[in-house]
Amino acid sequence: MAKKADKKTLDSFRKQIDEMLLKESYTLVDYRKQIEEGLNSWTAKIPLLKNRSEINQLRDSKAIIDSFTDEERADPSLITDTAMKRAAVSSKLPESDVKSLLFTYEQAKMIQKWLRKRKERGQKIPKNSSELQDLMTDNRGVGIAR
Q: Which of 2, 5, 43, 107 has the most other CB atoms within 10 Å of its CB?
C-alpha cells in the first residue's frame, strides 16, 4: 500500500512539474488548479485523514483564491491591500492567511520560472521533490537564487 501511495505522490509531482514547464506564466488560476488536485487526491477522501491540517489548509487556500476577482486571479499584480482585506472577509480567514497564501504563490511562481529556464538551457529537470530541493540549493551557481 505504501509503494502505491508513493507512486501516486510521485506521479502527482511529475504532473505538476510538466504543467509548470508548459505554462509561459503562472497565475493564481494555475495555483488554484494545483490546490484543487490536492483536494481531489485519494488521501483527502479518506474519512480519518479528511481533517488533517494539510487538507484544511488546502481548503482555506482555495477559499482565499476564490475570494479574488477573475481579473485578480489572472493577474495577481492587481491585488491591492483592499483586495486582500476583501478576500480575508469573504473567506472568513485572517488577513495574515491571505498574505501567507500570496507569499506561497509567489514562491511557486519563482519555481515555475526557474524550471522553465532550466529547460531552455537543457539543464536537468527534477524527477521528484528530493531532486527539486537538491537542485534549488545547489551551491555551484545554478540554484534558484540565480
A: 43
Task: Please classify residue 141 by burial: count the beta carbons closer than 10 Å to its beta carbon, then call 0-12 exposed, 13-18 middle and 19+ buried.
Answer: exposed
* Helices 2-22, 28-39: crossing angle, 10 deg rounding: 170
| Alpha-carbon dihedral sign for residues 74, 79, 84, 85 | negative
Give the contacts of 41 (CB within 8 A, at least 6 positions apart): 8, 12
- Joined together, the cell numbers standing for residue 77 give 499584480
- From residue 9, give the alpha-carbon distance in Å to each of 23, 26, 38, 102: 22, 22, 10, 24
Backbone dihedral angles phi then psi of residue 94, each to the nearest 5 degrees:
-65, 150
Q: Which helix (H) or strand (E) holds 19?
A: helix 2-22
Q: What is the pLDDT along the chain (146 residues), one digit of tens a residue?
A: 557 667 777 888 888 899 999 999 999 999 999 898 887 765 555 666 555 778 889 999 999 999 999 999 999 999 999 999 999 999 999 999 999 999 999 999 999 999 999 999 999 999 988 899 888 887 554 555 54
Distance separating the N- and C-terminal Cα atoms of the chain:
40
